Design the sequence.
């Protein structure tokens, strides 16, 4: 059953949503169990351009002033100082805790330090005082690792390696701390940005891929995954506005379930010949045979901005960042929350 998108001209309402302490980049959201509140994950650029992990707990109201913000950072050591922490996906942990995934960077006092990002998984109190674990796919042979989303005991993310232009996706089992590579069949690069736990062994994952068939064109995809059999099913590709002439880039940035059993995704895209780039709220239903239906697209365009990026989704809310360029060509980056007027 598909969602019904209302036909009013003003289908999306926008509001700023930022930490008052500095430049905020929102990257993930999840509803708090048994509450109307949400967890929002991201990063905060503070003094000296230091990037810290950021968690918000509260409602999606008041431009970020109705809840509480926490700075959380991967713990350093005498051998390595953490210089950057960025939180991507929050989730409900056991006994009222929060789970987080993301990336961090270190500066080593001795020896060779990694030049890129390292991945992490966190579980504990929302203030960051719990347990932090490094996530290392490909046996640690990586240049950059980004863990994007976690739910139901599994996390998903991406990594790259030196001297290889392609990117690789992986799943991380948070109990046994093991990573498993994932690849869309016949793809060059595969990305996994979102995972939704449907219950028991069933998951649905979202991301994007490139393939030799389409050349430089990137498409979004949805796929079901069974954690017991390790098998995938119902793989389906998507292009912006369901175009016959494929967009250069279409990518799903996350995933949430809709009230009628389908899924909502935030999407970023770049049209043919690079004429236009932007963001969308995407809804996809299930067909009677369990496969994914056609996508329904609503563009997200923060008023008077030069660039809008959709980074995460919760119910019918899209959160992300927008960029404003003033008369002196100075760019200001801010985060937003947009509510899409739909019947789910």
Sequence:
């Amino acid at each position: 059953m598909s969602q019904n998108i209302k036909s009013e001209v003003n289908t999306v309402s926008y509001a700023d949503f930022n930490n008052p302490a500095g430049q905020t980049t929102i990257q993930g959201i999840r509803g708090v169990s048994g509450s109307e509140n949400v967890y929002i994950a991201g990063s905060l650029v503070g003094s000296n351009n230091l990037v810290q992990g950021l968690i918000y707990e509260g409602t999606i109201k008041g431009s970020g002033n109705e809840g509480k913000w926490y700075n959380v950072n991967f713990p350093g050591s005498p051998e390595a100082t953490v210089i950057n922490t960025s939180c991507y996906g929050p989730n409900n942990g056991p006994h009222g805790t929060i789970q987080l995934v993301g990336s961090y960077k270190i500066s080593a006092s001795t020896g060779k330090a990694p030049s890129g990002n390292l991945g992490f998984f966190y579980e504990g109190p929302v203030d960051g005082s719990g347990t932090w674990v490094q996530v290392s796919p490909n046996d640690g042979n990586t240049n950059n690792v980004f863990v994007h989303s976690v739910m139901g005991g599994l996390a998903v993310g991406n990594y790259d390696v030196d001297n290889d232009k392609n990117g690789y996706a992986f799943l991380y089992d948070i109990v046994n701390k093991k990573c498993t590579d994932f690849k869309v069949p016949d793809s060059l690069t595969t990305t996994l940005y979102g995972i939704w736990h449907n219950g028991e062994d069933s998951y649905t994952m979202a991301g994007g891929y490139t393939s030799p068939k389409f050349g430089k064109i990137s498409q979004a995809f949805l796929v079901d995954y069974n954690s017991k059999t390790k098998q995938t099913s119902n793989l389906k590709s998507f292009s912006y506005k369901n175009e016959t002439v494929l967009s250069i880039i279409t990518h799903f940035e996350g995933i949430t379930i809709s009230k009628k059993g389908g899924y909502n995704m935030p999407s970023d895209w770049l049209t043919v010949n690079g004429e236009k780039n932007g963001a969308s709220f995407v809804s996809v239903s299930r067909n009677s045979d369990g496969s994914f239906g056609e996508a329904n697209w609503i563009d997200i365009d923060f008023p008077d901005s030069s660039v809008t990026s959709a980074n995460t989704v919760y119910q019918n809310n899209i959160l992300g960042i927008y960029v404003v360029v003033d008369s002196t060509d100075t760019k200001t980056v801010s985060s937003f929350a947009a509510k899409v007027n739909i019947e789910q």
The CA atoms of residues 87 and 102 lie 4 Å apart. The chain has two domains: 15-171, 183-304. The chain has no helices and 27 strands. Residues 183-304 form one domain.
